[in-house]
Amino acid sequence: MQFPESWLREFCNPPLGSAELAETLTMGGFEVEERRPVAPPFSRIVVGEIKEAVQHPNADRLRICQVDVGQVDATGQGALLNIVCGAPNARVGIKVPCALVGAELPPGEDGKPFLIKLGKLRGVESQGMLCSARELKLSEDHGGLLELAVDAPIGADVRDVLKLDDALLTLKLTPNLAHGLSVYGVARELAALTGAPLKTPAIPSVAASFADVLPVKVEAPELCGRFSGRIVRGVNTKVATPAWMVERLARCGQRSVTPLVDISNYVMFEYGQPSHIFDLDKIHGGLTVRWGKAGEQLKLLNGNTISVDDKVGVIADNEAVESLAGIMGGDATSVSDDTRNIYVEAAFWWPEAVQGRSRRFNFSTDAGHRYERGVDPSRTVEIIERITQLIIEICGGQAGAMDDKILNVPEAMPVTLRVARASRVIGMPLSQAQCADALRRLGFALSEGEGTLTVTPPPHRFDLLIEEDLIEEVARLIGFNNLPTTAPLAPITARVRPEARRSRFAVRRSLAALGYQETINFSFVEAHWEQDLAGNANPVKLLNPIASQMSVMRSSLIGSLLQVLKFNLDRKAPRVRVFELGRVFMRDDSVATTDSTVRGVHQPMRVAGLAWGDAEEARWDGKPHRVDFYDAKGDVEALLAPLVPSFEAAEHPALHPGRSARVLIDGKAIGFVGELHPRWRQKWDFALAPVVFELDLDAVAARPVPVAKPVPKHQAVERDIAVVVAEAVTHNALMQTIHSAAAAQGLLRDATLFDIYRPQPARDGAVAASAGGLAQGEKSMAVRLSFQDDSATLTDEQVEPAVRAIVEQLSAKLGARLRG
Fold first, then answer.
1. Average pLDDT per run of 10 along the chain, which is 820 residues long?
2. Could you tell me whether strands 817-818 and 717-726 are parallel, antiparallel, or unpaired per DSSP bridges?
3. What is the rounded distance in angstroms from the CA atom of residue 100 to the CA atom of residue 117?
4. Model pTM?
5. Radius of gyration over alpha carbons of the chain, in Å?
6. How far apart are CA 61 and CA 66, in angstroms?
7. N or C: which end of the chain has fewer CB atoms below 10 A?
8. What are the two backbone dihedrals, phi and then psi, of residue 571, each rounded to the nearest 5 degrees?
9. DSSP code, position 438
């Protein structure tokens, strides 16, 4: 909410500077989000009156004006300034801002002040400049000169005339402070915070000139608790809104529309009560306040046509719906320049009946914003009296009798405050007298007991329902800046991460070093992702999802990464490598509720990565290589280093059944790596299959503490062997068997596969003669063995038994034989 400080001070003017006033409101719970001057700094700009305006001899769009700024010449006679002006409204008799020679206008786009100098325009000397509102940074209006009031004193400083040294306050109010959504409401709080007197202007009743009332029937008291209105006849809607009202509305961020609309908006900002003005002659019969009916339509003042139903409140006449209750009026009964008779309405709409309705139609209004939070139901008649008073002053007319229907207004229920509990919650010792004084300053009626205070909330404080509400009021009145600073009782001990564990940042940095970019996604995903990509038929469902496509909690990060890939490919990304560290959610009945867990839901952290496109950036000296399973496998090995993972073929709902593997550390499964299943590649419309991995973050963060080992002093001895094995024997099985040979364990340092040979079938289907004795369904695997001893150089007598032991182990476990 925005308003000028000068308007606030008309109701309550404490002896505080502008900055102190803003700080007081903020510390009282009414956060002043911004405080800025009405206009930026400028100097030597005064009120000038155009005495003469003639056409420029050398320019069609320029005029030569003689301007009186209150200066006199050496003889004591009035001196006029010769100023060339191109504004279309430059004419004799108007008073406008005049920048004298030497004046500094507000900074332009370059950030530098604009200095007015003596100059010539098309050969005619110009002794100053006549200004528009935009040139003074008062508004964006650049259609002509800013015309001042006819009674503005000539030669006076424009800043003083227009009160441009005033400050604009922007308050950021929480939903429970709806009583502060008006200048008077903020002034009431300021008076309580500072003790300065609150000025409450009397609103006299306007004498009724006739007894006519508009028939109004309220069919839904749960929608409308009070409905007040009166007829005003003979108004003149073609008059101009007074400048002072236009100025105040502008400083509240509201543009001027028509006199009647401006009056309604002005009173809303003044007292917080929205109202609506109907064109009486456009109403058919009377008005009915009710819930809408399916199929009914209403064209609103903003030009939108909406369809209502039985969940939306409306005001209808005998023929059609004319207004959206508490939100916006209809176009059919809106006032215009031809309006002569009007109906002024102010009502109390129950907040529950207005909340959320604006969002259904994708717009919001100041009236709806206030009614959603609650409006004082006791002042509808006073508000109409105030509106009627302004209408008659500005537009003329005669007022009819007041019609006030009270059906169902909130009943104030007493709330009791225990002083001891207030002291404990606020965190400082409080006496009963202090609490009572704070509540009385707010104007609350209260009764005192033994250590208790019972408050009956006034009508404008419908938010006071429980004891905690009163405790908050006491804390606000004391001032949050006056609450004591209490050191925590528990010792604060830094959590030292063990050396055998990496931080999450280190994991992120490792993946970034491998060429991946981090992405952050919602934990809410589409339900079919869980079934398709995780095989999870019973995911954790959200009771109130923010969108239909975010209805369940994810148990895998793969779907989120695929969505990121899809987003990038739709924007023609040639290569994508992304990762995410995030939490997943799985049902687990063994999990109990603690400070960091929820019963029945396991929430581990995972790290997942996705690669698509070329394995490397485009190079001039080589052909592109598409990323495949082995690239992702290598990235997983690099991420887990110095741990050495093992991989075994396994199936996963999201991965290709023949191109996926389970990742194990010390025989324990920690995740999966593989190529996306062809079914899902086709469903997501990927030209190429991405490769993904997903690992438990705890396993990735673990790392062995390095142990110092002496550098070998003696040369290693290498032996190559080629063994014939069945086609089904895997590399992993071969290596495990080699390292398990007992006789070689003390000497064997490394084993590396360097060749695989398979026989080529002959044309008749038999194995070719050059197959080296390999039968169909066999292959030859050549392995380089490296032996080393820390104490001495190995001899053949030491190495050969170890090689024989390895061959025998291969023969016994894998049925292998040395290739001839």
1. 94 95 93 90 92 90 92 78 91 93 83 84 89 85 84 91 91 91 95 94 93 94 95 94 91 92 96 95 95 93 91 94 94 93 96 90 90 93 96 95 94 93 92 93 92 93 92 91 80 82 94 96 93 92 87 95 95 94 94 88 96 80 83 95 91 94 94 96 93 96 86 89 92 89 81 90 55 80 92 89 92 90
2. antiparallel
3. 8
4. 0.65
5. 41
6. 17
7. C
8. -110, 25
9. H
